Structures are given as structure tokens and as C-alpha cells.
Amino acid sequence: AQSVTQPDIHITVSEGASLELRCNYSYGATPYLFWYVQSPGQGLQLLLKYFSGDTLVQGIKGFEAEFKRSQSSFNLRKPSVHWSDAAEYFCAVVRETGNQFYFGTGTSLTVIP
Amino acid sequence: DAEITQSPRHKITETGRQVTLACHQTWNHNNMFWYRQDLGHGLRLIHYSYGVQDTNKGEVSDGYSVSRSNTEDLPLTLESAASSQTSVYFCASSQDRLEAFFGQGTRLTVV
Fold first, then answer.
1. Which of A19, A111, A31 is nearest to B97 (CA)?
2. Which of A6, A44, A99 sits opposite B102 (nearest CB)?
């Protein structure tokens, strides 16, 4: 069963516009949460992660994410998108039991000038 | 610098042949993982290992096997390649749950 849901398969935004990518997980407890980015033909690179503490986490390339326990969500945001942000974005979860990383189906981001 | 490397980067094989994809990491991580990436499915876990001589099945393990004889390597074997196994395969490693580091991927085509 899919434990990580990314409801948006594809998003298109204009350069300079704000961005929010959604991620929901199905576990009641607080897992470890991650966002990865994949450029075409490349492996995955970590953008940010949340383990505990402050629910707003900052990552690389100007990205941030907010953990909301009540909504089982960990949405990724960026105030102003750059053309170089066009890529595939994956949310991932590690359960409290075990060390396996489970990934969502990904959101493909297109940035138009 | 520590890294994780996969080989080959591209491979074409015939249906029914045995294929082995290599994964080598120099992070000295205990955990290693194999995923396949398919359009509409994201990354799905095939097999994983928490240490030498330890292997476990993931979500989509049928038709695949792994072995862990040392810390650095986790080769993935397709026992009898099928067209449904045409995919991009990623190897990853981690220390506990802190972060997974990924290889560049292997594009496998089964004809």
C-alpha cells in the first residue's frame, strides 16, 4: 500500500512565481520526512529533511517545507521559482520502525519564462 | 570524497538472460537499497540490506535477488530478465534514517 502520496503529477509555474508541492503520508506516528529533487538523467539529491523540533525546515536552493502533524502533510515551498528548478520532486518517508525509505510517485515541475 | 557508483549506466539484454547490476559505496554505510523508477510509480523498493549477510525483500522483489558479502557492495541480480523489468534502477545507501545517498542510476532495457 502506498504510504506516501503526492497528489500533483505535474505542475507548471511561471518563473518568479511561488511554488507549493504537496505530500501526505499515511502513518499515524511521526516518521522521518524528506524531499528529494531529480534532474533529468540524474540521481536524487536531498533538498531537506525533518526529524523533530521546529516544524518549518529550511533546505538548499531556497526551498523550505512545513510539517503539519494534524494533516499528516509535509509540503514543499519556494517563494520565487527559477528556471533551473524545473525537475522531478519526490517526497520520502522513513517509518519509526525500520530504516527503509519509501517514496511518493513524484511531481514534475515545469517552469515557463 | 565518499560516493556511490552504479555500473553499467546503460544495458540492453534479452528476455530470459541473467543480469547483474553493480552498486558500490564508499560511505561505509550499513544500509543499502535498490529501487526501480517507472513513470507513474515513482521509486519502488526492490530489496534492501542492513549489513553484511543481511538481505530483505521490498515492495517489488519478485524476479530479483541481492547478496551482501561486504559493506561496500550490493549487486542486484535479475534471475531471468523479463520485458516488465525494463526500467531505471537506483542504488542508495544510508546510515540509519538520516539521509539516503543515491547513485546515478542504471537504465536497463529488456528486449
1. A31
2. A44
